[in-house]
Amino acid sequence: MVSKRRLSKSEDKESLTEDASTTRPGPLSTTFQKTKKSHIANEVEENDSIFVKLLKISGIILKTGENQNQLAVDQIAFQKKLFQTLRRHPSYPKIIEEFVSGLESYIEDEDSFRNCLLSCERLQDEEARCGEETESWLCHPGWSTNDEINIPRLIVSQLKWLDRVVDGKDLTAKIMQLISIAPENLQHDIITSLPEILGDSQHADVGKELSDLLIENTSLTVPILDVLSSLRLDPNFLLKVRQLVMNKLSSIRLEDLPVIIKFILHSVTAMDALEVISELREKLDLQHCVLPSRLQASQVKLKSKGRASSSGNQESSDQSCVILLFDVIKSAIRYEKTISEAWIKAIENTASVSEHKVFDLVMLFIIYSTNTQTKKYIERVLRNKIRSGYIQEQLLQSTFSVHYLVLKDMCSSVLSLAQSLLHSLDQSIISFGSLLYKYAFKFFDTYCQQEVVGALVTHICSGNEAEVDTALDVLLELVVLNPSAMMMNAVFVKGILDYLDNISPQQIRKVFYVLSTLAFSKQNEASSHIQDDMHLVIRKQLSSTVFKYKLIGIIGAVTMAGIMAADRSASSSLTQERANLSDEQCTHVTSLLQLVHSCSEQSPQASALYYDEFANLIQQEKLDPKALERVGHTICNDFQDAFVVDSCVVPEGDFPFPVKALYGLEEYNTQDGIAINLLPLNLFFLLRLVSPLCLAPYFRLLRLCVERQHNGNLEEIDGLLDCPIFLTDLEPGERLESMSAKERAFMCSLLFLTLNWFREVRRVNRTFHLFLLFVSVTPDYIPPLGHFDVETLDITPHTVTAISAKIRKKGKIADGSKPSSSDTLSEEKNSECDPTPSHRGQLNKEFTGKEEKTSLLLRNYHAFFRELDIEVFSILHCGLVTKFILDTEMHTEATEVVQLGPPELLFLLEDLSQKLESMLIPPIARRVPFLKNKGSRNIGFSHLQQRSAQEIVQCVFQLVTPMCNHLENIHNYFQCLAAENHGVVDGPGMKVQEYHIMSSCYQRLLQIFTGFCLVSMSGFSQPENQNLLYSALHVLSSRLKQGELSQPLEELLSQSFHYLQNFHQSIPSFQCALYLIRLLMVILEKSTASTQNKEKIASLARQFLCRVWPSGDKEKSSISNDQLHALLCIYLEHTDSILKAIEEIAGVGVPELINSPKDVSSSTFPTLTRHTFVVFFRVMMAELEKTVKKIEPGTAADSQQIHEEKLLYWNMAVRDFSILINLIKVFDSHPVLHVCLKYGRLFVEAFLKQCMPLLDFSFRKHREDVLSLLETFQLDTRLLHHLCGHSKIHQDTRLTQHVPLLKKTLELLVCRVKAMLTLNNCREAFWLGNLKNRDLQGEEIKSQNSQESTADESEDDMSSQTSKSKATEDGEDDEVSAGEKEQDSDESYDDSD
């Protein structure tokens, strides 16, 4: 029988041996299984062998059986005692062989116990020899599973605790031999133990052998790289290994990836960090990261079927590997600032949408949460990427769906980033921040969802309009996306009710919609507390006498009623029983609406608001037909009782004006005719409790109610559409001057109510000219409101303040006579108004004044006119209307074609343009002027804002075809007009009124197309809207030629471009030209042929700059400076050679302007005049400075050809700069000098950073070119110094603020030239001198003393002579360039003192 023994620590708690063994693990602290034959259990081992005797002497008592052996002394003392005993033994060194033989004969597991004695120096050599003989035995596979103990692993682990190795090199050699023959599992154990076994001197040799093994056996990649990361190796060697690993990165298994990434990041240095990270981004295959989500999806399917499989464990393992991978990266970037900065830089350098990966976004989030010092940097990079369109919603969604487990741990950082993005001024960045909130709520756990809702509520209560709108939109999406999860956080949303005072009416609608959805959702039965709170708030606000709070109650009540009585018939998921509205629910809705009506009937504004809100609810088809049927009959009867009377009975009473029925479309001779009783209501509405203010809102409610109930059929109320109105004779005639102010105000109100009635019944009115007439003589008139969801009722037209101030100003400037209101209004010009040809005379000016006055009044009184619904614009389809004239027998007697007139077309286009601007331009981009009510911007668009942007976009795209028809008709009109007048559009045969209206229509059509109808419109970047983009492009391309519906995008873009480009010949104004070219740029943004597209845009822009446009008054150009600035920038940015374009304008166009009379423009560039010169100069200087900044600095590694090309480019740039800078001698106005000081300094700075390194390497080989460049630039910098003196003499603070920075830059330039000379061994050529301070004309500034003047003059003459001579020696050439540069420096130093 084989007995087994254990070697362990002593049980004696009082001895020091136990303390030593517990505090320091060692070979003797490990329990081993040992066997030996013929021993009696529970007895002390009695044996006369050398092995047993020496162990007893050293302090170990061996026992038989299963009893534990005892260590009577400390481990270190035992080893020392055994070492001394062996060394002092008389038979040393033979005693060592006997000792080991005794050990081998004592235990079966001889190597396990021998490893306990490895620390004894005298035993190591002998044991190593025995190890060679038993290598094959140790590597036997049976050891790995024997008695559930891996014996070889235990042996290897003992080698880690050796206190001292006698021959480390030999031990290393033996271990490496063992690795070569050991099985794979033992190879892993031995390799991972090497860092603790090896000495520092063996690291290099072992590293080389391991790298060879890495090539031979790829299965050992992970342990080898793990060990190499812990060894002290040469960086060059690590570089080779890292490159070897990088080449295999795409074929590595997911579970091995964390260790490999750890090695790669460990071997990164500051010099190659960016290169390594960039390569790692490219070669890291995304399948490693996508795999867990795929497995997760498959696992969900298996669970749903009720089956269990091993794929669940695989899924968990792969997810753990991905998490571990990012933990490794997170650890590296936390402790290595270089890695995090390089990673951000690598992502920043990525310049295309396809190159951006999910991995990039995850890394940005990880670095943002790990390294607080880089937060601002990451935010800037992310903003630039979003603004450029490189990071889109699809990429963000994939990031969250794939790596939600990784991002979940960074929830607070993700929300912090979203909060920072929501504070931006760019709508695209704000939208990205809202998506972060949305996906965080969708993919994260309950705690994170609570944090998301809390952050959104904080944004809503912040008071910032853009943040409030965005946060509310996100809440609306979340309520639809996951109502059950939102219900758990309803208590946070309910807190918004305490902050309703600080948000707009449209935002109040959203708040009540969210709360009502949560309160009345069928899935959330335990929501009665939200209903109770909402009812309390609504009743409290309705009972208030303040309109602001009553508005909150009305909007909240109607919104809640819409949710309670929602039309559920379209929901297929609901049963028929739940789909129908119950009688109890219908009663609750009716009671709530009656409460609102009773609380608002005392206030006309509140009643009108209630009618509008109720009408919007019906228009959106959110009201159940059963509830609509109950209230529909009441609405019709109430309207008839309040506003409709018999037309045959003229009202009698004490009226200030005679009552007369006007504007009826049919003859009302029968007794059943009806009329709108407007004038009597306007006088006596206080007695009848019915205000004429409610006429238009109430009719809209009635129309939508009937339309909804009868599927669009308005036959029941068709009598109201053409009935007359009881008014008075509106033509004032000679009575106007004799009317009192009260009577004129009454007539204005009557006309306003009439106009709003016509807008609601969609009739073309001809009374606007009468309104203009009365308003012009009533400047302080405030009309009745047309929109009622306003925060305050104290709304005044802009003319009351702004125009009156201008009247007073102009009255002082004039010859003492105060101008009339009509004259003042006609003088109010807007930059968007069409230009007036100067040679057309008084008729032209009169019409222009009339048109401007009309446009101005429409804008100023916009808040008081009723809003047109988006459906009205379907009239644009009726470009040609066929009217059939029937005889008495209802046969066609004649056919007449009625065309939509230009005034009506202009009216519709202007309103559509304003609607699209309000709806689709982000709120942050529509800045509110100073001291202007923040809510006034949204007045007039309340109905529109209750529709989604996608719905509006769909409506607009249905108008693309009719707008193309109108665009072509207007194009043909101007083409025919030019043909009749021999190529001149504004010739003598032109009809002034028609010309200006058609020109305005042209402008509005292009404006609508440019800003909103194509790719720049919101939503096109989303995949679901790509069909909309293709449809729009197909409409445009089909106007040119009919093609297949499945044309590629590039073909559609090309044909659409050519179609719109054909309109450039008929463009009537400069502003239309700018809109057209912007439209073409928007289309070509999606095209891949960027070079060809830029050439087309540049060519067209140059044609517009070289065209003679109709001029305005002599005192004022018809071209706006902003428009000219924009078009010139487009031309220079898209031209193939910007330097040649600048040289053409400055070298050809400007001299033509200088040599021409005062009022004559340049012949090459007619848009270049003395008034517009500053615009040309500013743009050319800015674009020149921007261009040279893009030139990469020269390096010694660049080829000779690159040096020559860059030097030639800089010669051209300096020549252009010299031409521009010398123009200030002729055009010395303040704006020109300001531009010169600002961009002159920036150009010199760019010269220092970009050009001087190039001159360092090019000076010797291209001496003549460098010399010429410096001579030219020296003259330019001298002129800049003269400009500093000019600013100082004239004491112009607006100019002198730029002088210190400019002088500092000039001084740095001289120091840099000195460094260049020193680099080229020409230090002796650098000399100092003084120059005179002069003004722009070169005249000496007299503030200097005579002695300095004499010295300066002599040195100035000397420098001019040396600059003309060309010496052949290097020293002479260097002296010329250096001397001239230093002269400019001395001017700077002299003046700065």
Automatic annotation (TrEMBL):
Residues 1370-1393 have a biased composition (Acidic residues). Residues 18-33 have a biased composition (Polar residues). InterPro entries: FANCD2. Residues 1-34, 813-846, 1338-1393 are annotated as: Disordered. This is FA complementation group D2. It is found in: Nucleus. Keywords: Isopeptide bond, Nucleus, Ubl conjugation. GO terms for biological process: double-strand break repair involved in meiotic recombination; homologous chromosome pairing at meiosis; interstrand cross-link repair; mitotic intra-S DNA damage checkpoint signaling. Belongs to the Fanconi anemia protein FANCD2 family. GO terms for cellular component: condensed chromosome; nucleus. The lineage of its organism: Eukaryota, Metazoa, Chordata, Craniata, Vertebrata.
